[in-house]
Amino acid sequence: MNASALTAAAAAAPATDAIATASATAASRVAPYRYIHKGLRVLMAHTLQRAGALDAADQADRAAIVKEVERLLATCTDHLAHENRFFHEALRARAPSAVRPFHNDHLHHLEAISALHRLLQRLRDAAPEKAPVLAYELFLRLSVFVGENLAHMAEEESTLTQALWAHFSDAELAAIEGALHATLEPEDMAFYVHWMGQGLNASEAIALLGDLRAHAPAEVYAVTAGDIEDVMPVQRWARVARGLGLRPVHGRMTV
């Protein structure tokens, strides 16, 4: 390995180690960011692909994409608020220095969201001959936004999660998660589940639904399981259903 490669490897070591450590530990600890971040990644990728394929000369297509990007931005804003209120505040009371860089990232994300809202307004109101230029600008700026968020979420799932593990028990983390979930309206929960269900692997879905079955009302479990079944590939859902001990009906699994 040459000198430049050694330097690069040394520079990458802290982040790599944090990711490796968190990955090895996540199965045995409460990992509060894991499932929701999988859903957000799917939503971001879907919205970015849709923005890239926008036919800006088509007013209806333009309006539809603007609405989709606005929904993504609203979801990101809500997610930041949830993290700030429930996890950052709790950790700030025990390890304030661990929260600071993530708080600063959140402020940057909010600035980026505001800038994207302004660009969406310009695109919505643009004359037909100017719309394609603004549509491409939206795609590029949304690409940057998504890229920054992907890196940020990886840091939260590694470095920040390890700080939470160091200062909170699993019971405490589960209680914080429960308090957050209690603030969500049913339609908001369904929205998150729609995107999470597309991103979870079978083992994760089994763990999520198994915990829900053990601790949530039966109707909440049944609705969530049905929502995940609706968006999962059939073969993956079949593995989930077998893992949960559900029975097949007409070639599908049911609760």
Protein traits:
255 residues; mainly alpha; Four Helix Bundle (Hemerythrin (Met), subunit A); two-stranded antiparallel ribbon; 10 helices; 2 strands; 83% helix; globular
Euclidean distance between termini CA atoms: 55 Å
Are there runs of 5+ residues with pLDDT below 50, and where? 1-13
Category by helix and strand content: mainly alpha
- What is the CATH class designation of the domain at 32-172? Mainly Alpha
In total, the number of strands is: 2
Strand order of the largest sheet: 1-2
Average residue pLDDT? 92
Helix coverage percent: over 70%
Strand content: under 5%
Q: What is the CATH architecture descriptor of the domain at 32-172?
A: Up-down Bundle
Radius of gyration: 20 Å
The CATH superfamily of the domain at 32-172 is identified as nmb1532 protein domain like
- Series of H and E elements: HHHHHHHHHHEE
- What is the count of helical runs? 10
Overall form: globular
Largest sheet: 2 strands, antiparallel
Q: What oligomeric arrangement do these chains adopt?
A: single chain
CATH overall fold name of the domain at 32-172: Four Helix Bundle (Hemerythrin (Met), subunit A)
What does the model show?
The protein is mostly helical. It has a domain at 32-172: Up-down Bundle (Four Helix Bundle (Hemerythrin (Met), subunit A)), CATH 1.20.120. It is built from 10 helices and 2 strands. The protein has helices at residues 3-25, 34-52, 59-94, 96-125, 131-167, 170-182, 186-199, 202-215, 218-231, 234-244, and strands at residues 247-249, 252-254. A two-stranded antiparallel ribbon has the order 1-2. Helix 2 packs antiparallel against helix 3 (59-94), helix 3 (59-94) packs antiparallel against helix 4 and helix 8 packs antiparallel against helix 9 (218-231). The N and C termini lie far apart (55 Å). Mean pLDDT is 92; it is low at 1-13.
